[in-house]
Amino acid sequence: MLENMLIIDMLVVSLILYIIGSIPFAVIISALFRLPDPRSFGSNNPGATNVMRSGNKYAGIFTLIGDALKGYIPVYVLLTMGFENYETYLLSFLILIGHTFPIFLKFKGGKGVATSLGILLSLNILIGLFFIVIWLFMYYLFKISGVSALVGFLFLPLYFFLLNENSYMTAISFLNLVFIFLTHKSNIICFLTNKPR
């Protein structure tokens, strides 16, 4: 599919995906619930986990759903348009880049966990469910969202391998893993120094 698209078409699709990824649900929902800007407390991260720290679980849940849907819906649309799975997975990184470096928040955004989850659920619901199970198990053990996410993504290529996804998808999942680890570098440092965030 990708090779048949004109360059201008690809630029338009890329821009749309980036803009969708840039939608700051954490900030929007916090404003709707009349909560402090999530960039002003906790980890200063505009994501669902930090919104939860405001004490309003509903706001955190709505942020999680919003961030996941902005990964799920565009991927679903691309697949229905005839894009191959691996092409869609590659294009989905534009959504993640938008989420992490959103134009609406001066390029300072979230870490991409919920949005990645939405992408994975749309690509292969079993892989998404594998991730959720590992996340929940790790959170039960450590009670630290960042650690749960890192371990969940550490096994991401294995999920693809076990479900007999093609080699392209497995390779791209390594990129997804690296992306998430890079966005969580401060969490990794804090965890290693016994100061988890």
Features:
197 residues, mainly alpha, 11 helices, 0% strand, globular
What is the H/E string?
Answer: HHHHHHHHHHH
Number of domains: 1
- The portion of residues forming beta strands comes to under 5%
Low-confidence stretches: none
Shape: globular
Helix content: over 70%
Q: Supply Rg.
A: 16 Å
Number of strands: 0
Give me the secondary-structure category: mainly alpha
Average pLDDT? 93
Head-to-tail CA distance between termini: 42 Å
- Given the structure, what is the number of helices? 11
- Biggest sheet features: none
Question: Brief description of this entry?
Answer:
This protein has one domain. 71% of the residues lie in helices and 0% in strands. It contains eleven helices and no strands.
Secondary-structure topology with pairs:
Blueprint (H helix, E strand, L loop, with lengths): L6 H16 L2 H8 L15 H5 L4 H24 L4 H16 L12 H11 L1 H18 L2 H10 L1 H7 L4 H17 L1 H8 L5
Helix pairs in contact: 1-5, 2-4, 4-5, 4-6, 5-6, 5-10, 6-7, 7-8, 8-10, 9-10
Please give a structural write-up.
The protein is mainly alpha-helical and 197 residues long. The chain has one domain (2-192). The chain has eleven helices and no strands. Helix 2 crosses helix 4 and helix 6 packs antiparallel against helix 7 (125-142). The chain is globular, with a radius of gyration of 16 Å. The model has no long low-confidence stretch (mean pLDDT 93).
